[in-house]
Amino acid sequence: MxxxxxxxxxxxxxxELTRACELNCLHCRAEAQYKRDPRELSFEEGxxxxxxxxxxxxPLLVFTGGDPLEREDVYDIAEYAVQKGVRVSMTPSATPNVxxxxxxxxxxVGLSRWAFSLDGPTDLIHDHFRGTSGSFDLTxxxxxxxxxxxxxxxxxxxxxxxxxxxLEEMAQLVEDLNCVLWxxxxxxxxxxxxxxxxxxxxQHEEVFQWLYELxxxxxxxxxxxxxxxxxxxxIQNKRDEKNNHADKINYAQSLRNGQTGTIDGLGRAPKxxxxxxxxxxISHVGDxxxxxxxxxKAGNVRETPLSNIYRESEIFKQLRxxxxxxxxxxxxEYRFVCGGSRSRAYxxxxxxxxxxxYCTYIPKKSI
Length: 367
Hints:
Layout: E1 12-16, H1 43-54, E2 60-64, H2 74-84, E3 88-90, H3 100-109, E4 113-117, H4 123-130, H5 135-148, E5 153-159, H6 167-176, E6 181-186, H7 201-215, E7 221-225, H8 229-243, H9 251-255, E8 279-282, E9 287-289, E10 299-300, H10 306-312, H11 314-319, H12 327-331, H13 342-349
Parallel strand pairs: 1-2, 1-8, 2-3, 3-4, 4-5, 5-6, 6-7
Antiparallel strand pairs: 8-9, 9-10
């Protein structure tokens, strides 16, 4: 796992089982619909896809949507994957589908982790962001079930103008809810997401610094999504701390936490994952993208094996070569561990190789 070559195999695969969902979230990447699409990959196609994923050095597999629980066969698919030896987690929506029986079934089939979205410490903020009254209460009730069953819990939070002032309260809530991981997403204006909902580049930097300080004193791990430049902040901070009493440390040492081979205390990839670089997204109809936030289609698993698309698509090959990045990202000394969000670059410029538009750092080579 730690020696994985991202040119050959991804570290993580996200499969959008369905776009059906009862919620109406303001930022929804999938622009989810209330009914299932009849073109979804079938159960047999899903098993074939899992076989292909497993053969790519068995990366992590995440079921997402829409709401994966809108598929009646979701646990049959999960059970097939788990019995094959794939580590599976799931990100269902907080709807009436999330019953105590559903959570119990997830544990019985061997789900590695259950992830819920929680975008505010109160129902007023969360329900507004999720576009559905009662979502906060449903989420809290479901989390209670998850804790009772000792199923590892992950909380996903999208940082936006709606909640940036209450992140301290959010962090305390995540601690109180006995989470193993807080996955902090930074809004990309795709799908229903709007540029006006994004925090500023300076605010990104402030939140990164806050997250780094927070990571040193909480019981849960912290990871970021669509915020690759958080890695640069981690490196800078650890380098400064080390310089107080020792020689400079290199990138690998900066990214590792103790002897566990984890990145900045996050317990996952040994090197930076980015859109198309260690990361692949498969839509409900089998279309393959560098990520769910980068809607540039590279192929379809009904027509081409996943490994061929990931390894041979020009889109993926370009994204795995940071030397092709443009502007300051292309000359930045952190480009191989950061690289900026390729999704945000595409959303705001139309070019996935352009510089990360919401990074304030000025590379040394461009000074």
